[in-house]
Amino acid sequence: EFMQASWDIEEVQAKGIQYLASFVKDKSVFPYLLPCTEVVTLAMRTHVDSLELQTEGCTLLLEIHSQALEQGVMMALDEDVASCLLRTVRKHSENEEFLSSLCTLLMMVSASEVAAENLRKVGIIPDLLSILRRFLHNDKICFSCCAVLWSLAVSENNADQAVLESAVPVIRAVLQEHLQNGVVAESACSALWALSLQGSVTDSECEPTTATLLDALRVNPERAVLVKNGCLALASLVRLSETAALTILLDPKGSGIELIKDEYYLHLDDPGVAEALCLLMNEMVQYDEILLDMRSQKVEKLLCKMKLQFPFS
């Protein structure tokens, strides 16, 4: 009530946020902190120029959202708050440390479909892409932004096709930069899968995106989620263009078919990986030339083994 009564006085808002933050470690206080997100975001919206207040507000919201996720509470984000966060992103677009925290917060809230839709409505995607281009070296920012882009791109009522198309080369650059970092690579593969499902990969991006996804599978063969989502992304690309299928077959770094076989045997007990591999091969055999090549590499034997391994799937 004190903060709401003095909403225009920056010092009051800063002291209020600091005081609220002193309670976050006490789990029993969580039900009382939950309604405070509204007053914190109001303070951030009103005093967008104050980096200190933005930082402390963002940190507090992160703590509250983290506890909410731990307790299975999904916190929605209305369009006003989404606009507020977008203004904050634009006002402090050069501050790497602050953006690292803010992008983590965006990742958390975008897990809600309502929040993801509101972030998309206010037009946050171009700003996320600008952040990625500027801070491509920052693994934390790249991980969070790719996760947010996945949540936004996976929405069925997406009308921002040109914007989504512009996201593909940026996410591909993230994947290339962080191939050795399994967590970031996994997030980037998921984002590329969502973008390919939306048909956002242009003809010129099809071959390099396919090659980069194959690189991710080679470098991180043990990460089941990455392999699964990487193969689903490849399946979507093959569905879009024969170029992707030919790239898988003729990749100069090694046969994509052999890679598929290796991944199956590495994740022999994982039905999710097997299903993703089957979907990929099913898309590839739609092209006669590819089908002949797959037969010559004895893919039928692999499929028979899969059928025996997962007879009820």
3D architecture notes:
This is Serine/threonine kinase-like domain-containing protein STKLD1. With 313 residues, the chain is an all-alpha fold. Helix content is 74%, strand content 0%. It contains 19 helices and no strands. It has helices at 2-5, 10-21, 30-33, 37-46, 51-70, 79-91, 96-109, 113-121, 125-134, 139-153, 161-177, 182-197, 203-219, 224-240, 242-250, 256-266, 271-284, 288-296, 299-309.
Low-confidence stretches: none
Radius of gyration: 22 Å
Task: Please provide the ordered H/E string of secondary-structure elements.
Answer: HHHHHHHHHHHHHHHHHHH
* Strand residues, percent: under 5%
> What is the CATH class of one domain?
Mainly Alpha
Overall shape? elongated
Number of strands: 0
| Helix/strand class | mainly alpha
Percent helix:
over 70%
Alpha carbon gap, first and last residue: 56 Å
Per CATH, the architecture of one domain is Alpha Horseshoe
Give the helix/strand layout.
Layout: H1 2-5, H2 10-21, H3 30-33, H4 37-46, H5 51-70, H6 79-91, H7 96-109, H8 113-121, H9 125-134, H10 139-153, H11 161-177, H12 182-197, H13 203-219, H14 224-240, H15 242-250, H16 256-266, H17 271-284, H18 288-296, H19 299-309
Helix pairs in contact: 2-5, 4-5, 4-6, 5-7, 6-8, 7-10, 9-10, 9-11, 10-12, 11-12, 11-13, 12-14, 13-14, 13-15, 14-15, 14-17
Short overview:
The chain is 74% helix and 0% strand.
